[in-house]
Amino acid sequence: MGAKRFYSSASLAGGKSRVFATACVATSATMVAWIYTQEKGVECANAGAPKDLSQRVAQLEMDLAGKTNAAFVFIKPHACNDKVKALVREHFKSHGIRVMLEGTLDAETIDKELLIDTHYGAIASKAVKLSPKELNVPDKGKEGFKKMFGLSWEDALASGKVLNAKEACAKLGVDGNGMEAKWAKLDKSKDMIKFGGGFYCGNVEGLFVINGFYMSMRNAYTSPPAKIHYFTVQWPTDTLSWKAFRDEVLGATDPTVAATGSARRRIYENYQSLDLPGQPNTGDNGVHASASPFEALAERANWLKQPIENDFYGRGLMAAGIPPSAIATWCNDPQVTYEGKKGSLFDYLEDLDADTVISRAQKIS
How far is CA 100 from CA 9, 80, 211, 227, in A? Predict the structure, then answer.
């Protein structure tokens, strides 16, 4: 019964859905392993498969994880209503994508558990968690800072004028939307410098503010009555590639150029009949979806608080020889070396299918 319940759609809220997801994944894995050992054990052993039970189960978990693309999707606060939920469900069904679990998380939960901050990772960390002195600004960035603002990065730090977005809001007496209004007026050619991906510094009223744009993004998720509605979805890797899922099923980040018939394009074109407050744009584009099977694992761990060892893809990676501690570290998108080049782990795994991610992860580890 556990497996049947897991493979049906469910609409549960908050903590109950998280417990349900964890329990069902574990139940499903146990059931599949039992079926495998009872019905296929002799056949696989005769075919040269490992005879040890634990090895057989590990091989099964790795094979299952590699043959299944599983994404974490959520409807963003600006579009979170029953009409959009219905559209998304129908959209997945029409593309042969199975909804395994769905539920809702409210603003209070998102705020209290720092879910959106973990989701946005380094962008959020620089804006609300790290002090400017803890930031790793590259030498090229420091040179650009001095050229644009007329003083060195070190002198700016010493003067106390470099603040993260949260500190700057308090200093200027504004909320996230107030900071966004000030940030939007900056001239990118003389008031703002990009230090790296998701790492910006802007001159806001004489203060050098780090990622000032983030606070309004956070407010959109953490100010009641905001909420998200999430879906965990799966489909066979051989029926739809991850790249096609993002390009054709989900649609481009900018909904105006998203593929015709994609979810984001449909929401964009029908926003009035869907009762949205305004036409979607690049930021408020209706829905979010994981950029890779690994990011989906990280997002399930964050939003659903699902332990890696209870996640079917996490177990697949563990069966492939990736230690749980490494997987946990990787969920924070560290810099790693792959084929002699150092870069973002998430970037190296983006748009790859589940089996390819496992293969690449083995090389990275």
Answer: 5, 19, 36, 20
